Each structure stands twice: as structure tokens, then as C-alpha cells.
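Honest question from a wet-lab person: if I give you the sequences of every part of a complex, can you actually get the arrangement of the whole thing, not just the pieces? Trying it with mine:
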Amino acid sequence: DAGVTQSPTHLIKTRGQQVTLRCSPKSGHDTVSWYQQALGQGPQFIFQYYEEEERQRGNFPDRFSGHQFPNYSSELNVNALLLGDSALYLCASSLPDSNEKLFFGSGTQLSVL
Amino acid sequence: GQQLNQSPQSMFIQEGEDVSMNCTSSSIFNTWLWYKQDPGEGPVLLIALYKAGELTSNGRLTAQFGITRKDSFLNISASIPSDVGIYFCAGAIVNTDKLIFGTGTRLQVFP
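Yes, you can. This is the full assembly:
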């Protein structure tokens, strides 16, 4: 049983560009959350998707957007990249009745130059 | 963004020693969780706590949900080299599924 998978593992972009990160949840999980982890910090909540809708959102600008597909997989899009967007982006999935118990992927390391 | 305060920030201990770390918040949480993150990986859930005062064990790990609901503690007994990593606490905000993570405690274990 595959866990949460994310792609790509690493990405290098320049300021102003746009990026799309992808996530497949653990089998049986229907809720996907995205977190940003800056170097030396704990993960920060970006948003959560359930039934293809954004259910909750953290304190991130509108440049950060997402999508969830009918198979529960999800994308995170970031527009107009800034240097400060450089971070590890983590996707986490959870069971329908246990949304606080997150199962994380290994993340996508984004570097903005 | 909001983060919980964890202490100590880092620990260097000898194999076989016991370890204690804690996490505090100015807000009340209805769920506390402890995660471990290895280099190049995402956090892995260790223990989940759901009730104030609750004490829960997972092998050599024991965690407690503080009675004020504003803190939590994690103890590791008889540490081994594979305990090396960064330990994060996380609190679930009441009536949301959003987790607030701590600043992390980096653990190094020497043989």
C-alpha cells in the first residue's frame, strides 16, 4: 500500500514564475492538506481540500491556490514566485473520520532563484 | 505564522539516556500530536492525545496532554541511535482540522 506520494521531489524556479506541485494521497484517504516548511521551522498550514473543495485556508496569499481531483489527488499552484517561497512543500492526507492524524509525503523542495 | 514553542531547541544525549521535551501554547487545543521528521522526509505521527490529562505510550515513547490544554510533553526512554531526528508537537485548533506545529526539538544521540 503506497503512502502519500509527491512530485517532483526537487524543483528550481526563478522569481515571477509559476509552479505546480502534485500529490497522491494514501489509499483510502479523501482529505488532502498542504503545508509549507521553511528551513529550520515547523510546517505551516496552507490549505485543506475535501470533496474537491477548499475547506480551510491558512494565512497565505491568493498566489497560493489548489485543486483536488475526483480520485482525491491534489495540486498546489503558486503564482508570481518570490524568493521567500523557497521551502519544502508537504502534502498530507487523512482518513474521513480522523482529519487531525496526518500522513505526510516526503515533500517537494522548491528553490526560487 | 503561528507556531507553538518547543523546548529545548536541541538536545545532545548519550545512547541509553532518557529524554524529555515539551511544547507550550497561548491557545487551547482539543488535540495534541507528536511527530518525528528525519532528513529528507515528511513528519511521521508518533502519538495522538485527545483529552486533558491523558497519558499515552507508544513503545519507549510516552506523551501527556497538559491539564490546562495549553501544553504537552514527550518522553523517550532508553534512547537509541535511530531516535535521532527532529520532534515536532502539533495542536489541532478547536472546531477546525488545521494543525499548528511547534518549532521543533532536534535530538542527537551519541553511542
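Two things worth pointing out. The radius of gyration of chain B is 13 Å. Residues 55 and 104 of chain B are 21 Å apart (CA to CA).
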